[in-house]
Amino acid sequence: MNYFKKILRFAKPYKKYAVLNIIANIFYALFSALSFIALIPMLDVLFKGKDATKITEPPVYNGIGKAQDYFKDYLSFQVNEYAQDDVSIALILVISLVIVLFFLKNISNYIAMYFITFLRNGTLKDLRNALYKKTIELPLSHYSEKRKGDTIARITSDVLEIQHSFLSILELIVREPLTILFTIGAMLFISPELTVFVFIFIPISGFIISLIGKSLKKKSDKVQQEQGLFLSILEETLGGLKIIKGFNAESIFYTKFKSSTQNFNDFSNKLLNRQNLASPASEFLGISVIAVLLWYGGTMVLVGETLDGPMFIAYMGLAYNVLTPAKGISKAFYNVKKGNAAAERVLEILETENSITDADKAIDKTEFNSELTLENISFKYENEYVLKNFQATVKKGKTVALVGQSGSGKSTIANLVTRFYDITEGEIKIDGINIKDMSQSSLRGLMGLVTQDSILFNDTIKENLKIGKPNATDEELIDSLKIANAYEFVKELPKGLDTNIGDSGGKLSGGQKQRLSIARAVLKNPPIMILDEATSALDTESEQLVQKALENMMKNRTSLVIAHRLSTIKNADTIIVMHQGEIVEQGRHDELIANEGVYKKLVNMQSFE
Q: What are the subcellular locations of this protein (predicted)?
């Protein structure tokens, strides 16, 4: 139940609905018991008719021991008063009483369900919001180790499982126990002897049901893990469909997916077959007890004559009335077991510690005044260092370029400066302030980012650009597009700024997507610009257009440029040449060419003069 308690904390803001639900359920349980007791005078009239004993004087209460007789005589007196010896009127009266009580019972049930709906859906909404918030707060390193599909499965199917398991209990947690309590009270009122059998039945059935349900959590965990796996395969398939088709690998991925869904099918069958045993098991146990009650109660009516027929029939109705909530509670018990696995997976995300957090008194820095410095920084993703004692200074208004072969650590520096990862050793400072002492939002507010992969979203051009500045005017959007050399193609689109660009900008060319990424960074207008191989994935013509856009953007800005194509950084103020995480050369383009070192070899390899 620990997971249940942790999930229930999301229900706290909706506790008023829980209180109203409890009040409505109290009335439901009360009317549920009374509706069966009201059958007694009806059965009296129905079976005894004119031979029924007439009570013409109000009965006198003679203590708890005679309460049953007093109740019967009082109802008989009231019926006799209104019916005035007319049996048909008496029958209509008692039937009307039964109908009114059943009506009140069902209205109370509807009101209880009405209020619990707000509690359930509100809890689910807050749980999903908390999961999404945690998902975007966790560092990039978290997702380099996890499958995206598994995270998607936790936020979607696992949350739905919680809805069907844990949150369905909220409907039963008050109503069913109260129904059983009021019903047993009425049964004790009619016959304490018969009620002993019911007290024996409940613990026995509970014990048998617990034996059946022990393995449910383990089986459910396997189902949800497998669901996460086939969602991951689906997500990877959609992301890499071009490669899959290009290499005729459809059969390989189909085999993978089919294998995963087969496992999911097998685990689901085992889980559901075990779960489906709950209802028939509890019903069989209930009918067994009803059979014993019929035998024992029938003996009391026919042989011992210690109980009359109408009261016994009403008692049997009450006894059967216990079965439905008892079945509901047993089903809820199964659901808790089954939901534990889903809750564990959801809470694993919510309780994952964020390795990159703001300091207690983090500084909100809004201006960049002098320099960005990287002081003897070293970094490793796992065991081996990918950066060793790296040192550089980027003065305000200057452009520093990082070049080197793939794997030399260039992009890692971009990830460290933006604090997507935290450095292992050393310090990164802006105007002498360690970036760890700054709030992450203010740090990233000082920076604009253009990556090798143009990350765009399935929305309009306008909304993609406004990520850089949510309150931007159309004039500002157009100005940023002009600087990014993108306005010419945008204005030719059918809806201009309001054109939807498709999933990941799929309706645009590579060069167009990259220029929109640059326009987004320009619109943000940050003092520091990070360009991570912004032209490496482009053809020559697109590269020239993007390069012009980059030059426009970098005017009067501090820029840190990670470059694969050396043609893009020949005008940089400082070029740092890296090899296996270390600086091997640095200087201006002409100086490095004159040195005839690593940089010149890289230039010659790209046939750049």
A: Cell membrane
